Every structure is written in C-alpha cells, then in structure tokens.
Amino acid sequence: MGPLQIVLGTLAVILLVVSVVYATKAVRAMLRIFRTGQPDPTRSGPVGPRLKTLAVESLGHTRMLKWSAIGAAHWFVFIGFYGLFLTLVEAFGEVFNPEWHLPLIGEWALWNLFVDLIGAATVLGILYLIVRRQLDHPRRQGRASRFAGSNEGRGYFVEAVVLTIGICILLIRAIKVAADLTDAPAWSHPVSGLLANVVPASPDLLSVVAFVKIVVSLGWLITISRVLNMGVAWHRFSAFFNIYFKREDDGSQALGPLPAMTSGGKPIDFEDPGEDDVFGRGKIEDFTWKGMLDFTTCTECGRCQSQCPAWNTGKPLSPKMVIMDLRDHLYAKAPYLTGATKASDNAPDFADYSTLKPSDEQVWASGYARIEGTNDAQAHRPLVGTLEEGGVIDPDVLWSCTNCGACVEQCPVDIEHVDHIMDMRRYQVLIESSFPSEAGVMMRNLENRGNPWGVGGNVREEWMKELDFEVRQVEGAIDDDVEYLFWVGCAGAIDDRAKKVTKAVAELLHIAGVEFAVLGNGETCSGDPARRMGNEFLFQQLAQENVETLNAVFEERPAGRRKIVATCPHCFNSINREYPQLGGDYDVVHHTQLLGQLVEEGRLTPVTPIDRKVTYHDPCFLGRHNKVYTPPREILDSVKGLSTQEMHRCKDRGFCCGAGGARMWMEEKIGKRINVERTEEALELDPDVISTACPFCITMLSDAVTSKQQAGEAKSHVEVLDVSQILLRSMAPAGAPGTESGPGVGTEPDDPAGTGSAATQHS
What we know:
The protein folds into four domains: 3-35 and 67-226; 244-266 and 278-347 and 360-431, no CATH class; 445-598, no CATH class; 604-730, 3-Layer(aba) Sandwich (Rossmann fold). It is built from 30 helices and eleven strands. The strands form three sheets. It has a five-stranded parallel β-sheet with strand order 3-5-4-6-7. β6, α25 and β7 (587-590) form a beta-alpha-beta unit.
C-alpha cells in the first residue's frame, strides 16, 4: 500500500460517510413528505400477488419491453446497476490494494464472466439510450419528441454517470489482467481481456480508476440526495415500491373502474358526508401518499406523452408534465407541509411570479414553471388555475384529458395518471363548480332527464318499433327463460346512429335464438359521463338507482345467472367494474364478446361474402380499459370476403376518438380535433368501412368522415359501422344491398349500402 493508495482510500472512506449521511437524510425527508398525504389502506396487500407483480415487472421488464429495443437496453442498464453493486464494494478494497478481490467469489470464474458481460452490456445499453435521446431530442422533433418538457440536463447527468461507471468496471478488470493481478481463467473475462492489450499494466492506475468509480458513484448519490425531485435518478429506488403498491393487487394497470372518492382513507358517504371530508384534490397535500410516491417516481421518459391523443393534437395536456408539475410543486411546498416553514396569512400577487410568456409553448403544459422554487407563493398557489392565478395545473390541461388510458398503459413504473387527473376534476366540479359550460348542460340533463341529451318521454322504447319481432321488456323480476338483460344505454336508445347498432344486435340475438329482454324506460344513464366529468355525487345517484333496479330484476338469480349484455363500452365498464363499489355484482359482457361466442358456437353463421376493405378502431374503454381486443376482430375474420387491415396505432397503442372523459359533451377548441386525426389515419388505408364497437366512437368517426367527404378528402362510399352491423349484413341473402362485389361497390346511387335491413341502413 503506497502513499497514493493511502490518500485515495482515505478520501473514498470520507466520501462514503458523507454520502450515507446525505442519503439517509434524503430518505427521511421523503418519508416525512409522504406522511403529509392522505392515507390509503388499500395498498398493503395481499403480499403474495404484489410481490409476484414486482418480480415480473422489474426482473422481466414487462412494461419497458413494450418498446423492445429501448426496453432491452434499459434491462441491461438495470441489471448492471444492481447486479454489479459488489464491484463498488470491491473498488474500495482496490483503492487501498490493487490486488484485492471480493472474498469467496472474487476469483470465481462465473462471477467474473457475469461482471465482464453485464459490464459491457451496460456500456452498450447506455450508449444506445444516449443515441436514442439525441435522435428523439426536441431540437430535432419539437413537440413530437417524447422528451419535450423533460429536464435534459438531469438526463445527461444520469447517462454520464452510468457510462462512466460501466467503463471504469471494464478498465479495472482489464488492468488486473494486464498486470497479472487475477487468477480467474481467461475465458471468464472475454471483454476486459481484449482491453488488457491496450491498457498499461499499472497497479497505481488501477487504484486511480477505482477511486474515480467511487467518486462518480457516491457523487451521484450525494447529488440526488440534494435534489429530491430528480425522478430520472430516484426511480431506481422508488420504482420498486411504486410497482408493489400499485392500485390493482393482481398486477393489472390502474384502468377500467375509477376508485371511489375517499377522504382520510375511507370512502365518502355522499348521503351523510363528514364535516372534514376532502372532496377530490384541491391542494397538493390532498393527494394520498401513493400519489406522492407516483410523482416522485416519474422518470420523465415521455412514453405517456408520446401516446397521449391530446398532446398529439396540439393540446396543452402532457401526462408527463402533469406528474412533473405536481412533483416539483410537492417538493417546493414541502417545508410548508412538514411544518418547517410557516406560510404568510395572505396570498401574494401571482402576476409578480409569472416567469413564462403566453407565447411560450410550455405556457399551458408546464404550470409549475410559472413559479419555481420554494417560496411563499408556492405555499399559496392553487393546484388548478390559470397563468394569472398562479395555478400548478392549467384548467385547459385538466379538461383536455379523454381518459383514454394510453398514459397508464405505457408507463413503465405504474404511475396512475388518470386517477390523479380525475381527482383534480372532482374538486373542481364538486367544490369550485368550475368546469366547461357545455358540460354543465350535460349534467343538468342527467339530473333532470336521466340522459345526456335531455330527451324525455318514451324515447328509450322507440327503437323497438322498427323491428319485425317483439322485444321483451322486464317488468319486476326477469323471466326465468330470459338469458340476457340487454342494456341498451342512452346512446343506443336515443342517438340515430347508435340505434342502428342496437337494432342490429337485437336482430342477431333473435336470429341466434338467444332469449333477451330490455328495461325500456326503466333504464337511466349508467353515470359514466358524470363520473368522468368529475361529478361523483351525480354518478352515485344514477348508479345507485340502476343498482336498485338491476338488483330487483335479478333478485331471484344467483351469481352466474345475472347476465347483462351492453353495446356501449362506457356502460359496460361502469356496470361491470364500477357498480360493485355500490353493491351491484353482475355478469356483464360486451356485445362483441357475446356475438363472437355465438359465431364460434355456430349459432350465427356468416354465409354471404362482403366485398369490403375494413379497418377496425379500438374503443378505449373496450380495449385498453377492459382488454377486449380479440372478439371484434374474430367476428370480422369470420365474415367471408372482408379484407381487414390494422391502423399503425391499434390495440394497446390505439388512438382515441376524442369522446372519452366526458369530452363527448365538451367543445374541442384547442389544436386539431382528435376524431379528425384518428379518421385521417384510417383513411390512409383507403378502406370502404371504418369499423368500431362503441356508439361514441361511431359518432366521432362518422362526423369526421362526413366532414372529409364534404371537403372531397374521402370517398363518398366510406362508412362507419359497428362490428355487429357488418356481421348482420353477412347474414343477409347473397345479392342483398350492402353485400355486392366489385370495385364500384357502394359508390352508385342505387347501392346505398345496407338498405336491406332497417338496422344497418346507410346513414
């Protein structure tokens, strides 16, 4: 041990002590902050399934590998960070004594081979990620870059640290080989063995490189301990906890049902709420501790942003920047939350703190940047508010969300973006009464008429009059011979386009010999538009009314015979996955699932070829939220003559139609219309039919197709049809309208596709 080793070793030990002190303080500070959040007792168990999910998602990198090349590169970096931790321990010994090895495994061939290969893979993996960051950089792609809005400096810092440590690992091993300081067999260090040919055989150099490795590693730890909101670094630790404590203990994403509103960790009783109950999230401390963990874990990777339909059509909403803004505001306000600093009694003039100009692209997207740092303004600013109000989240950001779930689907660390956005909406609607005016009309219609359109009378029964068979209606308990209750839904009973789908499904069930019945005027809105708007109180009213009706209908039936079929994915999601929160447990299927089963059983046999090119659009609440991707496609595949082609954004990466999140009833005033973007993508395939399986999607896509046809940008015969309408056409006799063959099909005035059936006539 020479003077160099003594000096470097002493400095390394001092740095270790300093870094441990800083890291301990940082973790304790984080825990203090998390404790200021609302409790959430639903996250603790069951332990077994949660541990399994943690192992699968972390070791298997299942979420990261949705983007295969990037996921694979990240997996090697991930394995290198944890799997090569012992090389940092070894470096402390090597600083003092270049010949030092780890006890027991230091000269073990398999361990040496692992270090060599994973060390090299880590270097190659981080180099690939560095290149991808530059290729995807905002300077090249602008708003289209998934890194737009991310903190590039922090990303570069982390990449540089990983690259430097990986190189140091290989250099240390190469110098050991060159200086003949290892007895491990040559085959156990294939990479460093090659490097040994170009590095000096200097033990002193080995100690210097080991010292550099220690300084870079511990310098990184000290840096992130001083910057608690550096998610690109902290996610290496917090991601494990975030995955373990995810909303669904079975490992599925936080999609489908919205959680019930809670306060103090308990569901709110809307009939008799407590005086201190917190309705939604109006302040950063109103979020649960898990929400705060979500914010801390964001890596700023931008996968959510790249898939968001709002961001992709020029709107201010970026799911990534919402989480980043909440995170940065949380840590800036932390001293006030923990009691370390006391806020003034009066809020300041937020106009004095505004740092962004209205012309800046980020003026909407990054609300936190309006007021940066820890200061009195940070303690007083509203969670949701305009630039002039100093809001952390701009109202236009909040109301741009379609609840499509693309952000949640893509997030590699299981952040629950939709839940957080909806909780902020709940506060705005229930406490602030602040929401788009058009949505107010919709909610009044729900309150007064039980449907979003405000239509009264016996409108829910009119569609049945156009069928050539009688549709049974339930009065009291459902008849024993009725297999399914057909939940028609508001759109299916009121909207002209959706009524055609309702009639098509009814005809198909009748053809297949399925006994079904409807509630008719006994139905009211499922409550989905109210809940997705943020009006939880109205949702509870509507849903409770329906649960009472359905429980009475199925009173004599055990579980397994309480069958409901719904054509609307929003109704399907609410009744199937949200009504159990209110005591309504039913066996709910979407009509494509039932029709697909009937085709498979031979009870429906498509016999007539349909000479059409079809592309299928996945409804968000059927696909991403409920994972129903296959049945609609199997139905289309069963129809002879159909040529099907997928859009490039499909299935779990499908693009929204723009109607979800109650946006069906809100004006789209910013950027490009989402339904137009999706329709243009479909029209690029030159289809005859754009098919889907949701009444909202049909409305949005039909409107866009009509607009394109009027502008001469789409062929006049292109139509938007539900899967059931196409299936019904295939049941018609050969030669019936809508089943013709040839290149001119559907283009002639005497061939209005589908007029052979009242349920499938051309719109």
